[in-house]
Amino acid sequence: MPTIIKKDQIDDYIGFEAEPTAWHQVTQSQINNFADCTLDHQFIHVDEEKAKQTPFGGTIAHGFLTLSMLSHFAESFSIVIDGVYMGINSGFDKVRFLAPVKVNSNIRAHAKVTHIEETKPNQFRIKTEVSVEIEGQDTPALIAEWIGIQMVK
User: Fold this and answer.
1) How many structural domains does the chain have?
2) Got the DSSP string for 65-125?
3) Tens of pLDDT, residues 30-54
4) For residue 136, what are the domain limits?
């Protein structure tokens, strides 16, 4: 569940670190579906036999699939300003893919709010630093600076 805050609490939430999200297992079916949606059928993602011959020893998730999972994870780590009626994904200031997500790996997100500003009356820009952890690994799959806009009544 997101953390709901009042407008007068915004300054208190800069630096807020959410609890890590629940784990999500990345399956071959999910990877194949993503490949179909994006038309990216590179063998390292979808050809299990050929991918076994690579240094990864099997298929890996697309980096953009891992990035796309932030929308799912955000349901847990987001802060939401009370009275919000619409949220918009505004993009990223930074995205880095650091480690591949092997098929059947478990991943989860860690998030820290780094900036909140009212850009127009009742419109807030929120920047969140996010990393995606791979269970059992020290290096995260990715790190990103994600920007969202919230419109508040």
Assistant:
1) 1
2) HHHHHHHHHHHHH-EEETTEEEEEEEEEEEEEE-S--BTT-EEEEEEEEEEEEEEETTEEE
3) 999 999 999 999 999 999 999 999 9
4) 3-152
